[in-house]
Amino acid sequence: MSDKTKPGSAQATVLIDNERTRVTEWRFPKRGDNTGWHRHRWDYVVVPLFDGVLEIDNGGGEIAKAGMSNGVPYFRKAGVEHDVINGNDFECAFIEVEFLDRE
User: Fold this and answer.
1) What is the pTM of this model?
2) Are 72 and 49 in contact (CB under 8 A)?
3) DSSP designation for 34
4) What is the torsional sign of CA 63, 15, 7, 39?
5) Per-residue pLDDT tens over the stretch 31-81
6) Residue pair 12/89 in contact by the 8 Å Cβ criterion
7) In sequence order, which residues have a C-beta less than 8 Å from that of residue 18 and are 6 or more positions away?
8) I need a labelling partner for 24 at 20 to 30 A (CA). Which of 45, 48, 61, 92 fits?
9) Cα 5 from Cα 2, distance rounded (Å)
10) Is the separation of the CB atoms in 92 and 28 below 8 Å?
11) Which InterPro entries match (predicted)?
């Protein structure tokens, strides 16, 4: 079952943050590290920096496994709610690029 109160243990480093774009590196040092439950306010692109699997807790007890390929980006629309979890036996990371609408 989803625990929407579970704090995130992944390390977020904001690399760029301006009026149009926020770029964040998410680093997951060990299996089970997670972002914590969150909702995306803006459209975004994720660029994995590894080959492996992320586990996505979408709520309601559903955990999806998402295969990642190093350097192969994917796009998501605003409104996604989830907790992203390292499903690997090694450190992994990705770059998240959010397209901000701050006007």
Assistant:
1) 0.91
2) no
3) B
4) negative
5) 999 999 999 999 999 999 999 999 999 988 889 999 999 999 999 999 999
6) no
7) none
8) 61
9) 9
10) yes
11) RmlC-like_jellyroll, RmlC_Cupin_sf
Find out if CATH 2.60.120.10 is the number for domain 11-99: yes
CA distance linking residue 83 with residue 67, whole number of Å:
16
Structure tokens at 75: 């796009």
Asked if 97 contacts 47 with a C-beta cutoff of 8 angstroms, the reply is: yes
Indicate the domain borders of the chain.
11-99
The three-class DSSP label of residue 78 is coil
Q: Which residue has the tokens 């994917």?
A: 74
What does the alpha-carbon distance between residue 29 and residue 91 come to, in Å, rounded to a whole number?
A: 4
- Amino acid letter for position 26: W
The first and second tokens of residue 84, run together, are 């992203």
Region for residue 20 given its phi and psi (left: phi exceeds 0; alpha: psi -120 to 50; beta: otherwise)? alpha
**Residue 96 tokens, joined:** 């998240």
Amino acid at the residue 84: V
